[in-house]
Amino acid sequence: MRPYLLYSDGKGQIFEDQTLYAIGRAGWDALPVPATEWIPLPEGGNLYELPGRRAIGEDVQTGALRLCDKGWAVAAFIPPAHTGLFLAAYETEADAPTLPLFCYTAVGWKADQYWVTAVRIEKDIRQEAAGYDEEKIEAGTASLLRHYPDNRLVKHLMENCCMTYHCPAARNFALGRWECPVPSSPACNANCIGCISFQPAEESIVSTQDRLTFKPTAAEIVEFTVPHLVQAPFPIVSFGQGCEGEPLLMWETIREAIVEIRKHTPRGSLNINTNGSKPDAVKALCEAGLNSIRVSTNSAQKGLYEAYYRPNNYQFEDIVESLKVMRSFGGWSSINYFVFPGVTDSEAEYEALRKLIQDTELNMIQWRNFNIDPDWYMGKVGLQDTGDMLGVGQLMELIREEFPQVKFGYFNPPMERIKGDFSAAFAGGQY
Ligand code: SF4
Q: Hey, what domains does the chain have and what are their CATH numbers?
């Protein structure tokens, strides 16, 4: 049995239309989804009604594709550790509002549950919805604020990130486990169309969190990261978070912090999530002891990358160089790859990704869902025709076959996975 299409009444009520099967979208095309690429909506997922958009489905009787005119289209926000394989298929009306910065995965209804086109790409359970105990988080937050009363960064992480934005990384820090986030930069040298920490006033959408407003000192960073590295299971300290600009603009402070941290403990992984714009700064951080880098990108193609990132004083070649620098120091390199069905799996992107893996000896691809309005994105970067598509699932298989050494996932790995058996040593399976 195939999932039926979903629609909403515009008031938050969602219904299935048993005259239409749910289908998917890739690029600008609406198309049927292979039966093997539907999974039940994982816990922690959400459903969105899409104002000003009519869902496209496949007529149960005729097999023809047609609009559902009973209400607005519906899409799913799939939880971390899962990668979407198709976008929701719909037709957008002329005056429809731009959608906020979330992902819009195809969803349907079958056997009394919601089904989405996705794959679990990551074993690590660090951001499982079931793993967050609100009482323990509040207690951990209060304890950290008591222990570090004058630390602006702990105050930002606990009051804003943990208790307001409900950032999974900040909540794990409050629980004393796994990856500890360290934002540091109020500024950025890129102008991403879908920036989650800053949106220009002329845009109708808002950023999902506000950007940091101060520059932390190395002492503020060291004060709480050393105890975390010493005490937490599978510890990681990650510079570069969604609530800041570009951390490489603060490389001197980060270097000072890394040098000081390593005087206290060799434990854990020191990672930076970055746009990769300054390979010289990456070199200086590697010399200081940085263990891992994750470079974010919407594409392995220079033109598409620069059309989205709109970089100031750097170019695509710099992010490639940053990945190479980390590998030259024997460190771990990942790309934070924004997956957009129909674009990421285009022939041109596939060839560019193969070249990027070969040129940089890349260790890992974090197959992330692209949190952006699909029409808005493709319009802004000028994507009229995406050419032949492989299918995201097929793309993953081709990369896995040709580059078996390249790990797939969704999160930065702890040292235990980097140095140990990557498939085994993950966050222990328990919360
Ligand atoms: S690199 Fe990050 S902070 Fe800078 S514009 Fe892009 S999304 Fe925003």
A: 4-120 (no CATH), 131-419 (3.20.20.70)
